[in-house]
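Collaborator request log, item 7. Partner lab (contact: R.S.) asked for a structural prediction of AI-2E family transporter to inform their binding assays.
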Amino acid sequence: MSEQSSSRPGEAGSPRLDAGSQWERFGRYPYLLSKLLFFGLLLGGFFWVLGKFSAVLLPIFVSLLFAYLLDPAIDKLEARGIRRGVGIVLVLTVGVLVVTLFALFLYPTLANQARLIADHFPALLTSLETKALPWIERTFGLELPSTVSAAMERYGAQIREALPTIGQHVGSVLTNAVTRTGAVVASLINAVMIPLFTIYFLHDFDRGRRALVRFIPPHRHDHFIDRLQDMDQAVGQWFRGQIQVAMILAGMYALGLAIVYGAFGLDVQSGVVIGILAGFLNVIPYFGFAVGTLLAVLVVLIQWSGFGALLGVGIVFTSVQLLESYLITPRIVGEKVGLKPVTVIIVLLLGGNIAGLMGILLAIPVTGALKVLLPDIFAWYERTSFFTGKPMAPAQMHVRARVITDDATTWDEEISGNAETKSPSDAAVDGPASEDGQTGDPAEHEDGESGSSAEDDSSKDDSSKDDSSKDPKADRGNSEEQD
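Returned to partner:
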């Protein structure tokens, strides 16, 4: 059988590529480039909107977060026969009272401790020079280099001169920060709008969820619902679990520091406040542990009563941190929904650098959603020709070429002439695709081609016989004209 080849205009003598080769060589690159460009523009536009309208979007996102976290409590009250509106008022009232009491209790003590640390810091430096360094040398047999003492003498004098001024103003730092007119106005607006938005979102939360489900295509309904439930488990339970863990740690830190401070004659109220602060700051992994340890040690050094207090502080924070890592967090948050501490720290830093406070608020929800979608993304990637190293089936080439081309009709005609469109199931039954875009066994293919060529030859002979036998008079007339 002679091979037939065709050429495009302007490409005389060059063989024409079939549909599969055209797609493999040229078609997928503009398609992939257009997808990357589209998602890049979409992501850039999203961050531009966040930065441009952050003042407006911030109270909305905060209200949505509060509504999302409080909705399960409202649903439980509603299941017990309490109307949804009444349940919303009860939950928000309790929340506002708790936050107000904590603020009134924490702020004065923290401000006093800040003033105390600033005022006693020069004495602390002197104590380090005269007591701590000699004690280290005597206890551990170390001879500290002279550069340490020189550095303490050099920078200690500068710090002593600066800290009295700082100590006079530490108590009024927060007050001065909110005395500006713009800050006061923005704070008042947010203080009013966030509760109103939260009430509205809580009232219509279930209705909005049902409206969102209506936009899901029916044939993908189950898949999308499963993914949304997984996202709710990964994000919602992480937030709620971290809040429960923070409350437990706040109680444990406060109790432990109160016992240690009381045993060594230190300010018990300072220990309670530092413990509560360290517990709630633990929403960011290890942040509460670091801040609480630093503040507790500074208080012990300022109100010095021996190294036993330092040892007690170390035991409290170390034991509570071990319990949190190996017992409390695994039981409350769970390994399935728990995000790794390093991941949380990294995404919070990235979110803050990209979009400020808005980025910090969105960092954990976006990370939780990506964690749920990653298995689907990897599964799709493992089916691509780039990963498998196998060309696409002719049916896939036909469909995707029609989607990405500008002149769909022309490509449709060309591809239909070179590759038969089949469903994926038909392609799988027929066998793997060959280089010329045909499927099935190669031997059967050659037999089919030889059989078809033989049938074409026989049909030509039959047609010539039929033409000659149709009109004998016409044949005699033609012979007479030739004579």
